[in-house]
Amino acid sequence: MPVRLNIxxxxxxxxxxxxxxxxxxxxxxxxxxxxxxxxxxMRTLDAAYKAASSERWxxxxxxxxxxxxxxxxxx
Length: 75
Fold this sequence. Notes:
The protein is an all-alpha fold. The chain is built from four helices and no strands.
């Protein structure tokens, strides 16, 4: 069930929303944007993981932690 919110945003941003979206479309747009931010789809996540995997510092960090693998962990 929809709920009514009172939000605050910059005036210029609000004017851009009014200019670019159909009347009565701002609420749907904001809902979709919040949902996408909180629950990104698999394509977005895959792209983010792919971008992260190409970062050198992440690769170095991963290599440093490789020695902590639990394959030979006493069980």
